[in-house]
Specification:
about 90 residues; 4 strands; globular; about 40% helix; 3 helices; 4-stranded antiparallel beta sheet; alpha+beta; Gyrase A, domain 2
Protein backbone atom coordinates (compact mmCIF):
# COMPACT_ATOMS: atom_id res chain seq x y z
CA UNK A 1 0.00 0.00 0.00
CA UNK A 2 1.43 3.36 -1.01
CA UNK A 3 1.74 6.07 1.61
CA UNK A 4 1.03 9.53 0.27
CA UNK A 5 2.65 12.80 1.25
CA UNK A 6 0.11 15.22 2.68
CA UNK A 7 -0.53 18.60 1.08
CA UNK A 8 0.22 21.84 2.95
CA UNK A 9 -3.53 22.28 3.57
CA UNK A 10 -3.84 18.75 4.97
CA UNK A 11 -0.81 19.30 7.20
CA UNK A 12 -2.16 22.63 8.49
CA UNK A 13 -5.50 21.02 9.29
CA UNK A 14 -3.98 18.01 11.04
CA UNK A 15 -1.39 19.98 13.02
CA UNK A 16 -4.15 22.17 14.47
CA UNK A 17 -5.33 19.04 16.32
CA UNK A 18 -1.94 18.57 18.05
CA UNK A 19 -0.43 20.58 20.90
CA UNK A 20 3.18 21.67 20.58
CA UNK A 21 3.99 20.07 17.23
CA UNK A 22 5.30 22.19 14.35
CA UNK A 23 6.69 21.67 10.88
CA UNK A 24 10.45 22.31 11.00
CA UNK A 25 12.63 21.68 7.96
CA UNK A 26 9.90 19.60 6.32
CA UNK A 27 9.40 17.34 9.36
CA UNK A 28 6.78 17.19 12.08
CA UNK A 29 8.68 18.15 15.25
CA UNK A 30 8.09 18.47 18.97
CA UNK A 31 10.44 19.22 21.86
CA UNK A 32 9.96 17.62 25.27
CA UNK A 33 11.60 18.45 28.61
CA UNK A 34 11.79 16.07 31.55
CA UNK A 35 13.08 16.21 35.13
CA UNK A 36 16.31 14.40 34.32
CA UNK A 37 18.13 12.13 31.89
CA UNK A 38 16.57 8.90 33.20
CA UNK A 39 13.03 10.23 32.73
CA UNK A 40 13.88 11.48 29.23
CA UNK A 41 15.45 8.17 28.25
CA UNK A 42 12.48 6.26 29.67
CA UNK A 43 10.20 8.33 27.43
CA UNK A 44 12.40 7.55 24.41
CA UNK A 45 12.10 3.84 25.21
CA UNK A 46 8.29 4.09 25.32
CA UNK A 47 8.28 5.96 22.00
CA UNK A 48 10.53 3.29 20.47
CA UNK A 49 8.13 0.49 21.45
CA UNK A 50 5.09 2.29 20.02
CA UNK A 51 6.90 3.29 16.84
CA UNK A 52 8.29 -0.18 16.23
CA UNK A 53 4.82 -1.73 16.56
CA UNK A 54 3.68 0.71 13.85
CA UNK A 55 6.72 -0.02 11.69
CA UNK A 56 7.33 3.73 11.61
CA UNK A 57 10.57 4.96 13.14
CA UNK A 58 11.07 8.58 14.22
CA UNK A 59 14.26 10.56 14.48
CA UNK A 60 14.97 10.86 18.21
CA UNK A 61 17.44 13.36 19.68
CA UNK A 62 18.35 13.50 23.36
CA UNK A 63 20.52 15.84 25.40
CA UNK A 64 20.25 15.23 29.15
CA UNK A 65 16.60 16.02 30.02
CA UNK A 66 15.53 17.22 26.57
CA UNK A 67 14.11 15.11 23.76
CA UNK A 68 13.34 16.29 20.23
CA UNK A 69 11.31 14.08 17.93
CA UNK A 70 11.16 14.54 14.16
CA UNK A 71 8.58 12.65 12.13
CA UNK A 72 8.62 12.19 8.38
CA UNK A 73 7.71 9.35 6.06
CA UNK A 74 10.67 8.55 3.85
CA UNK A 75 8.56 6.41 1.49
CA UNK A 76 6.28 9.41 0.90
CA UNK A 77 9.16 11.90 0.72
CA UNK A 78 7.49 14.09 3.35
CA UNK A 79 4.90 14.20 6.08
CA UNK A 80 2.10 11.61 5.85
CA UNK A 81 -0.94 10.64 7.90
CA UNK A 82 1.28 8.00 9.51
CA UNK A 83 3.35 10.78 11.09
CA UNK A 84 0.27 12.36 12.63
CA UNK A 85 -0.91 8.99 13.91
CA UNK A 86 2.44 8.44 15.62
CA UNK A 87 2.46 12.01 17.00
CA UNK A 88 -0.92 11.37 18.66
CA UNK A 89 0.34 8.12 20.17
CA UNK A 90 3.49 9.84 21.43
CA UNK A 91 1.43 12.56 23.11
CA UNK A 92 -0.64 9.91 24.89
CA UNK A 93 2.56 8.54 26.49
CA UNK A 94 2.95 11.67 28.62
Amino acid sequence: MAINKLSEVEISSAIAQLAGWAVVNGKLQKNFKFRDFVEAFGFISKVAIVADKMGHHPELFNVYNKVTIDLTTHDANGISALDFELAQKIDRLL
